[in-house]
Amino acid sequence: MTASSTRADYLRAAMTLLATDGYGALKVGRLCRELGLTTGSFYHHFAGLPDLVAALLAHWEEENTRRVAVAVAEITAPDQAIGVLKEVAIALPHAAEANLRAWSLRDPAIALVVARVDEERRSVLTAAIGLVVGRPQRAHDLAVLGHSVLVGFQQSRDPGDLAELRRLMDLYERLIHAESATSAGSAENAASAVVAAG
């Protein structure tokens, strides 16, 4: 890394440290050593460590939630949206997110951001699933289930075991499509009942 490093370089290094060593590793000196830079370079980009943390949280929220929501909103095929969201979920920085969640238990400011990201993700997922299953309450429940599986994986399993996560997400995707088939079958049965009654 050179002296021309940018804010983005610091944010990437901070996310890596968060993933590997936890939030306690986010120190100015440690970041500068990781990048091979002086503390003067750090203070050229950030007012201090709290400024870096705020930028890191904003970056995490933007890259891993809002930008995804915009991309999914542009997809017209419901089945395609579910597939895109599955791949996004698998590609998240799981170790860093697990440590962010641990950090949020000790810092109310971090907790607010994590809660907002979780709510945004559930909202995007609910909307996408709703297009597939057609029932708002069931879409909500399936979104909560899927989000809970993701967070549970991050907290209780090896965040680096993406093969296991993919198996779980594949199973979850099949569950959504099974609900879609159930909904379609129920609609057909209802229609048949109406025709028979007529």
Automatic annotation (TrEMBL):
Q: Which Pfam families match?
A: TetR_N
Q: Which residues bind DNA?
A: 27-46
| InterPro entries given in the database record | Homeodomain-like_sf (IPR009057), HTH_TetR (IPR001647)
Question: Where is the HTH tetR-type domain positioned along the sequence?
Answer: 4-64
Which SUPFAM superfamilies does this one have?
Homeodomain-like
Coiled-coil region list? none
Transcription regulation recorded as keyword:
yes
Sorted keywords for this record are: DNA-binding, Transcription, Transcription regulation
PANTHER family (UniProt xref): HTH-TYPE TRANSCRIPTIONAL REPRESSOR NEMR, TRANSCRIPTIONAL REGULATORY PROTEIN
Q: Name it.
A: TetR/AcrR family transcriptional regulator
Species source reads: Nocardioides fonticola
- Provide the taxonomic classification: Bacteria, Bacillati, Actinomycetota, Actinomycetes, Propionibacteriales
